[in-house]
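Structure ticket #2291
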Amino acid sequence: MPRGSASAREPLSRGRVLRAAIALADAEGIDAVSMRRLAEGLGVVPMALYKHVADKDDLLDGMVDTLIGDMPALQAPRPTQWRGAVRDTILGARAVVAAHPWARRAIETRTVRTPAVLGHMERLTQLFLGAGFSPDLTHHVMHLLGNRIWGFSPELFNDPGGAPSPTKRRTSGTPDPQDYPGILLIAADAQARRPGAVGCDEDFEFDFALGVILDGVARLHRSKWASDAARDGG
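Resolution: structure written out below.
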């Protein structure tokens, strides 16, 4: 196929470039995404891409924005149903991120609050405000939710690749399991509840944490919580 013939059939656009970049990242990982590889896949010269994306950072911002656009935007039918709408919106975001293994890393490394990023934050903010939450409580709830609004939560010492690193490094010694009876107890209990399972059930843990957070948020809302009173010890 001559270079540029695909472009002649379907004009190049920012949206088409971004979707092609997402497909490349899905297939080969985010590190495989380059202007050269993307141009080859689209059947154009690399310079043609710069009419639609300014640089690699703009490309990554656009890829993230495109995925955010795929996230559901739910409205609470009634103020009392805010929790279900928030939960479904966040779990919808999680489903989008889970479908693209590179997305979490890309979201975590973005530093620009694009209109798409702000739009997702605004939709969640309005769910709380529409339920009668004060701006003060809503502000702190958004901080509390943190990265969970994008469908993932921070994990301690979690290897996103899912495999141990082969690199050997110096340590202060080999841990003796008997020195950590609490961890052993938790591990044994988890293994008994999920025989044969490898690692934690991340979807369950995410949903559990989100439920606990929203339970606490609902309690604060009912008590008319305010940050100035909390600082004063009230």
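Closing remark: The first helix runs from residue 5 to 9.
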